[in-house]
Amino acid sequence: MKYFSLGIVMLLTLAGCVSPVDSSNSAQVTQKPEPGQSESTSLTGTSGYLPGTYLPEHCDGVDPGAIPVFEDLISELDAENCVAPYTSQINMGGAEVVTAESAGPDLFGVSQYLRVYRLLEKVPTIGQFGQWGQWIGNDAHHAGPFNSIEGGLFVADKMGRSYYPKYMASAATHLYSGTSDTGGGWGFYERRISCDVLGRVTLSNKMLVPPHLISFDEDQEAFENDGGISVGTSWAALPIIGNEFGAVSSGDSPGLLTWTFVIDSANYSGPLIAYTPQHWDLRMARWNALEMLNDVFNWTVGDSIADPSGQALVDFLNEEITETEMLVKIRNQTWYKDWWADPNKTHGVSPADRYVPTGIEMPPVPLFAIEEDGRTFIKSYPPRVPNTFDQEPIAQNIQTFNANLISAFTETFKSTAKDSSWKKTFEELGIPMHVERNERTGPLVEFFGLRVMGEDYYDGSTINFNVPLLAATQNGETSIVIDWTSTPKADREIASYFEVVGDKVIGVTESEVPETLRLLDYGNLKNPTNLQNHFDNIELSTDDTFNTDCWVCEDPEGCDEEIHQTTLDDGSVISYRWYRFIDQPVFWNMKREYPEFYTDSYLADLQMTMENMHRNWDGSVNLLERPADQTRFHLAEIDHGLILDPPAGKEVGWVPIVTQVEHPDGVWQDEIIQPESDNGPWLRR
Asked: Is the pLDDT at 472 greater than 80, yes or no?
């Protein structure tokens, strides 16, 4: 028997692991289920670490005493790291939609209904799978999107071992800064961020949006042979913050923009979270100065700079001159003209880029091969894509919004709004996206020969699984479907095992391949990531400005100190507190950074507006425009553990704020985002 393998390689990981720590919290904790919450259950086989089985040559640092699990196969538990020798790639491309010319020059939102289905039986550790989503950017910086609203259906065990993909609703800012408020107090790599960079606002009083993403109920009817289940999603620039007093935009938008995530599901519909307009350019002058000092002047913290323009940046950081005085001294510099990010083009004050990519972003999937008796066999892990009907929708009623969306809700988001203004929805405000192209990307199973993976796991795919897509606009709606019209039903199921015959592969049954190949298997992630609260296990140097004051809960008028807990189907336990809307942690930061904007008087009006929203949009009111064809349309259920009933006395105007997340077999992420430069310690934004 001949084994096809590669040498020793390093397994790519999603994030560094840390040691488990005590997760106790000094605050009072209640663990009973919330009212109306069912007990959490998990589907068999969807939880827990499943170590891979490999040949020794697939692994690095094999234990000399390793006991084979079958013939010469070993468990990855007996090695430092193991990796499959080959890869496959899931392609779902060729169908592209773009913002329609009829939408005009400005973009203020996107909406689409996405098919929720399980992509793979077991999630590899190579990277994270973006099953379908969107990217909303801008041109505030020459190097790329200074602000980016990203997300969609997401698969990675670091966020929990859920059966279905989770939905990621988050944003990155300051050129993908690690301190972006992606999770309501957590940033990149599930690390805690300082209070002074918070920007995400919780809007809903009846549904949690935890930092480990939005989960779907695992026990719901999947309707696999009847169109599946879908969730409606939208990012919309609504006139919420600043609208009360007609705040003027410094950019090209009609007022300040509160980018808001809205969902439509079987058990909750309505706005969930938003980002303050100031979030997108928060401490932007300081960020710009630090970037120039690092990239242009190679500055070391504490040093002086001979160049007057460079010293002006240092003086500004040291608060010796104002921003205006600094700009006078640097505005003629080439680096300023070419690389200084423009606050007037950020998401809070200007429309987004008209080009909004939608689609997938997927890493390779492991693949194994064995030769026996002159025959070569392959074990693959094909995607589980819907295939019952000739056309299976995966993204329906894809729309964008122009400034009409803002004007439609200008009267709604005021403390004096009439009940009738809350009756408005996004209906008829969306403009169908335009079908730019439809291109076939290759046969369903495309074989390139056994190509041993190189140092980069993303190079050298052996098999591509090309899922045929088709974008079309019909009856005023643009959708993307998996198009099986040219594929007989018998050929739509992708085999897991193949035999190599010449330059092709032919699907074979499991019983036809060697037992060794059947037992070869990649492992999943050993531990999901627990998201630590903002008080425990933080080690700071004496001069570190990392701040946790916004999480202090002392005033019962604005914060209930009791910690509640709810458990999701994946076993994760979410801890949270109830805050009055205007007293949630993000507004601690906004009041400190922008005291002339977030006055007590204005916040009182904003509180009244949110109380009206909770009364009128109570989680049962859908704002989005659902697909017109309801023949085989079923809304997905959100994990019931995320659906809450506000406590007595806090039915409106109070919101649940997550304080930490713990998984059954998770490891705590105790690190915080630390600024770095080539010359050593760096300053925070």
From this structure: yes
**Tokens linked to 250:** 């410094």
In a domain? residue 608: yes
pLDDT of residue 4: 40
CA–CA gap between residue 51 and residue 513 (Å, rounded): 22
> Who's near 457: CB < 8 A, 6+ residues apart?
9, 12, 83, 87, 126, 363, 364
Q: Output the pLDDT for position 13.
A: 27
Residue 1 has a CB neighbour count (10 Å cut-off) of 11
Q: Which of 48, 220, 34 is nearest to 570 (CA)?
A: 48
Q: What is the DSSP letter of 672?
A: B
Average pLDDT of the segment spanning 219-239: 97
- Give the distance, in angstroms, between the CA of residue 583 and the centroid of all CA atoms in the same chain: 26
Q: Judging by DSSP bridges, how do beta strands 29-30 and 559-567 pair with one another?
A: parallel
| Whole-number pLDDT of residue 453 | 84
Contacting residues for 582 by C-beta, under 8 A, at least 6 apart = 558, 603, 604, 606, 607, 610
> Per residue in 554-583, pLDDT tens?
999 999 999 999 999 999 999 999 999 999
Q: What would the pLDDT profile of 6-31 be if each residue is shown by its tens digit?
A: 332 222 222 333 333 333 333 334 44
Classify residue 335: in a domain, yes or no.
no
Please spell the DSSP secondary structure of 135-204, one letter per residue. Answer: -EE--SSTTS-SSEEEEEEEE-GGG---SSPEEEEEEE-TTT-TT--SSSSB-GGG-B--GGG--EEE--
CA distance 135 to 30: 38
Q: Residue 337: inside a domain, yes or no?
A: no
Spatial CA neighbour of 109 closest among 309, 285, 261: 261
Count of domains forming the chain:
1
**CA distances (Å), origin 680, targets 16, 262, 371:** 21, 42, 52
**Smallest Cα–Cα separation from 385: which of 134, 129, 131?**
131
Which residue range is the domain that position 134 belongs to?
2-285+344-681
Distance CA 629, CA 424 (A): 22
Interval 117-133 mean pLDDT: 94
**Residue 305 domain flag:** no
Name the E strands within 218-346. Answer: 229-238, 258-264, 269-275
SS3 (DSSP) at 445: strand
Q: Which of 111, 105, 112, 102 is nearest to 139 (CA)?
A: 105
- Evaluate if residue 265 carries a pLDDT over 80: yes
Rounded to whole angstroms, how far apart are CA atoms 423 and 74?
A: 62
Angle of CA points 578, 583, 584, to nearest 5°:
60
* Mean residue pLDDT across the chain: 92
* CA nearest neighbour of 572 among 533, 536, 525, 531: 531
